[in-house]
Specification:
Structural class: alpha/beta
Strand order of the largest sheet: 2-1-10-11-12
Radius of gyration: 18 Å
Order of helices and strands: EHEHEEHEHEHHEHEEHEHEEH
Distance between the termini: 17 Å
CATH architecture of the largest domain: 3-Layer(aba) Sandwich
Largest sheet: 5 strands, parallel
CATH topology of the largest domain: Rossmann fold
Strand content: 15-25%
Oligomer: single chain
CATH class of the largest domain: Alpha Beta
Bound molecules: magnesium ion
Number of domains: 2
């Protein structure tokens, strides 16, 4: 018997094009998954308001995970904004930590420092989407000014203060000590309970902040980007899309669905 499939996907640079944020090329695979009633769970550094808006446009009805694993929302969250589960830290506490880091001499600027026009400039988002992206609850994305050593020291001090600095495709995200992998596991377990069945998880990503999610899933997919893919410690059931963004997403998903239908994908635990 085939196992119940769950798809967890990063958005920027993975399901959405890195530059124009389009998902058109992934529509055939998304339709296929919808037909098979496979939940497509966005697991992203984006905010609640950004994902809720995209869900409506993409007609996705599934729970979603925001701000790098910080919070999990149910499929109908747009009605109430109530979370299913929170792993992350409050943004006000994160901003207090960042103020201390600035006093120590670290140089950076983030969403909290930027005007709406600067957010647009740094993200390439349009005005409405930039506004949604600025409504953050659990993380602060920033651009770090400094050399590799300074950045490593910043990351180390942030961790010892009880937070985490994770590198995404554009920004270094400062957040609570949670990641996309912990959130994936939490939600996959909920589904297993609800379905009373074994679930098989597929995770797709393109950046360092996707590593934990790709380590935690049964099937890991790297979507092509300009740089080489980050290293995973696992080797089994790791796939590489040969095209970037939604084009790669669509191709690899068609391939994985075929493998799944013929029973060739397995759970790893
Ligand atoms: Mg990405």
């Amino acid at each position: 018997m085939t196992k119940h499939l769950l798809v967890f996907t990063d958005m920027d640079g993975t399901l959405l094009d890195h530059d124009d944020y389009s998902w058109d090329a992934a529509k055939p695979a998304l339709a296929e998954l919808q037909k098979a009633e496979v939940p497509v769970i966005c697991n992203t550094s984006k905010t609640f308001h950004e994902v809720a808006g995209l869900h409506r446009q993409m007609n996705i009805k599934a729970p979603f995970i925001v701000e790098n694993g910080s919070a999990i929302y149910p499929a109908e969250a747009h009605k109430s904004e109530e979370t299913l589960h929170i792993n992350g830290a409050k943004r006000a506490d994160i901003l207090r930590h960042l103020a201390k880091m600035r006093e120590k001499g670290f140089e950076f600027s983030g969403f909290n420092d930027w005007t709406q026009a600067q957010i647009i400039e740094h993200t390439g988002l349009n005005e409405a989407d930039a506004a949604k992206s600025g409504q953050r609850d659990f993380s602060e994305p920033l651009l770090f000014n400094g050399n590799t050593e300074q950045k490593e020291e910043f990351i180390r001090l942030t961790e010892s203060a009880g937070y985490l600095a994770l590198q995404g495709g554009r920004f270094l995200s400062v957040q609570g000590q949670c990641d996309k992998g912990v959130a994936l596991k939490w939600l996959a377990q909920k589904y297993a309970q609800q379905w009373q069945a074994e679930v098989l998880t597929i995770a797709l990503g393109d950046s360092e902040n996707d590593v934990a999610m790709l380590e935690a899933a049964d099937v890991a997919v790297w979507i092509k980007r300009d740089k080489a893919a980050p290293q995973l410690s696992r080797t089994e059931q790791v796939f590489f899309a040969t095209e970037k963004g939604p084009v790669g997403w669509n191709q690899i998903m068609a391939h994985l669905l075929q493998l799944h239908q013929s029973g060739k994908l397995k759970t790893l635990r």
